[in-house]
Design a protein that fits this description.
This protein is mostly helical and about 100 residues long. It has one domain. It has two helices and two strands. It is rod-shaped, with a radius of gyration of 39 Å.
């Protein structure tokens, strides 16, 4: 009787192991299939981004897309920053300004 119970329990354990192995193999195959589809998706996205980059480069022609205005004050060579400091003024111009005040 004990031998029969041991044989039956070993059969059950082997069946459980086979079922576990079968399920594990199925899970691995499923993961590999999912990975392959993600790789395909990523490759397609890379292709599309490359095509968009090429289209943008062709449209721009190497220039800025914003409309720019020409400098109406071509002789302007100095600026005054927020702190009041003047940058780029010529010493002679500063002297002339102080005489005008």
């Amino acid at each position: 009787m004990q031998i029969k119970i041991r044989v039956e329990s070993r059969k059950l354990v082997m069946q459980e192991d086979n079922l576990y192995t079968h399920n594990s193999n199925n899970n691995i195959l499923h993961c590999m299939t999912e990975l392959a589809s993600w790789r395909t998706l990523l490759r397609n996205l890379e292709t599309q981004v490359g095509q968009l980059a090429k289209q943008l480069a062709d449209q721009q022609g190497g220039q800025f897309t914003a409309s720019t205005e020409t400098n109406l004050k071509e002789q302007c060579k100095a600026i005054t920053i927020r702190s009041g400091k003047k940058v780029g003024f010529d010493v002679n111009e500063e002297a002339a300004e102080s005489r005008d005040d």
